[in-house]
């Protein structure tokens, strides 16, 4: 059956063309935007066309932040000459004051340095780089991500007036990477932007070589009341125990500056394709197999929260909630988690079935951001683990486009997920 | 020690910049060409600079074939209107007669169909596609590769006057893939070219829809007497048993139309980097660790043959001859072979050491084209197995450029090979 699943995934798959449609018709589909609503309608239609028994747009409210006019970060020399630094505002950043923000810069390499550095009235430049020694780039991303997530709030506590962060990538190029930052209540909200690694190196070198430098930031963002967005749901009703659910999903939203091919358009089309594959091989699941395309993973997680809330109210049991949010790269394995901490061991009995397909990893984990709330409610969760080395090269940037996705790798990810869904439907976890 | 090896591979590695130099200064370095000789000198210098105890240019003679002026394949309609078909002559193809070759076309899907089709006086168009059902693209490549390797000779036996083959790739695009063809003695040599998959589909559609179509081929290639090329060798002399060798290598040549980044520039720079890594971690090998950059893998294998010949004359024992010729993608494992057929089982005891680094596969194999002659002489051989899905997208084309290579994946391949070399040096196989 796995061979049939892989055949259906690899021969005449619509996944790559679906991804092309998603990323070329609905790029920059931040949750709640018109582009996002267009993607909702498109995705629900694809699910209907493939023969779902039921589809739904599960409505919720999501944060409404707008980037506004193109931001600008410039290095300003005494005498007024200035040079552009390739930058992008962090998601959720407040705008700079009218006329912009110009201030001296102090370079730090960790949040801890805030306690000893003189940052009052200055722009703090967190220039920590992702550690290349980690084999798994996600670990380096999580470690260095603190400067983006927490840096602006932490710096504001010490009197800083603005923050710049080095983009979270291993590559040295001039493409800035956005991402969310989390402000704290009772702490001033200061504007924050990410510099490309090239711009970060340039600023660092200038700070070492020259005196009396300032940086001029202009961010034109705005915050508004929450606005609506929906999780897109499509399911194949189970023939024996339809009240029990096997979920497969990704997040439909992406950053406003990105086409969102790997993050997470690949996850969207792969999740849809799992249902198509099961139908193509003529398999009628015993339990309900449900595709959920979550809203607002990037800047709020409201879709995942809403889904888990509703599932909890209905006392809905998920045999497995499997998400894919690591890109459309070649499938290497799965992380699997449950409260008892033994789900990955139970899943490991499927290992021999997957090895001919190049899938070897069955490790403990927490699934991912979107299925996290379901794990907290006692369900077993999982996340596809794709080959990870290229992901952060394009993560949260304009470069996350379909040309970075390989059709076969995309198809193999869908196949691996369909295979796991099938096995859990047959044998449980 | 593996951690130290990986650190040395991942922090401040020169591998990617070496690859940039190799592919931008010496693209199209078919064995024997001036570009190839430039690459020889550059590579030997890099090996000297990293501190090899001995370097050598091991001379041999290689076939001398020249592509000549840009080839042309055109679809010709009754009345004379014609349309270009994106094409590239196969490596070693004879030229078309003066004025070109224009003839009717018959489309086949396998060599076997030659026995029943009417091909006399015609151009045979082998339009077999790589089978997407194979998980490992190399298997599909080997299967469909017969039409390129053997098609022209087989078609000539049946009276065909020329051959077109569909490019060996899963992608649908307009980039033609070259590669060697093998003519037979006592059989006429007919001109042969590969069409891009887009051109192949277009020709196939035209043949179904229209009548009296012909194809006009112009190939301006020429054959000459063999000319010299060298294997580039650099070694770290073993401290205890220097007469025993652990070889690590790739092939220095690449097709004339290609920059040769993945095939096999990656293998070249990774093999050099293995020696650099061992020195960087302060490891003095017990046995001689020798980097061999083979000449002429693409169209003759004369370098590999010469190396094995010399090694045989010297009665040189290779504890392991490890090559990398699958691209600079993320390392998944190794194929390992010996006469007894148990080498991969012996190597599998190293598996637990590699798993934290994402390397899982230890399977039986024959190493690769360049170390094959050494296996025939009783040595243990191995080949790095990188993630394979993207390789044939750019294989043997102008698109095999450095932008297709990810620095971390390249570095991880070098690390994996350095780790295996270290373990075999310490523990044998």
Just name the CATH architecture of the largest domain in chain A.
3-Layer(aba) Sandwich
Low-pLDDT sequence parts of chain A? none
Please give the radius of gyration of chain A in angstroms: 22 Å
CATH superfamily descriptor of the largest domain in chain A: Zn peptidases
Shape of chain A: elongated
Number of contiguous helices of chain A: 14
Largest interface: A-B, 27 and 27 residues
| Total E-strand runs of chain A | 16
Strands of the largest sheet of chain A, in order across it?
Answer: 1-10-12-11-13-16-14-15
Describe this structure in words.
- The structure is a homodimer of 429-residue chains.
- Chain A has 429 residues and is α/β, with parallel strands linked by helices.
- Chain A folds into two domains: 2-63 and 226-427, Zn peptidases (Aminopeptidase, 3-Layer(aba) Sandwich); 70-222, Glucose Oxidase, domain 1 (3-Layer(bba) Sandwich).
- Helix content of chain A is 32%, strand content 25%.
- The first copy, chain A, has an eight-stranded mixed sheet, with helices on both faces.
- In chain A, helix 8 (261-280) links the parallel strand 11 and strand 12 (287-294).
- The interface between A and B is medium-sized, with 27 and 27 residues.
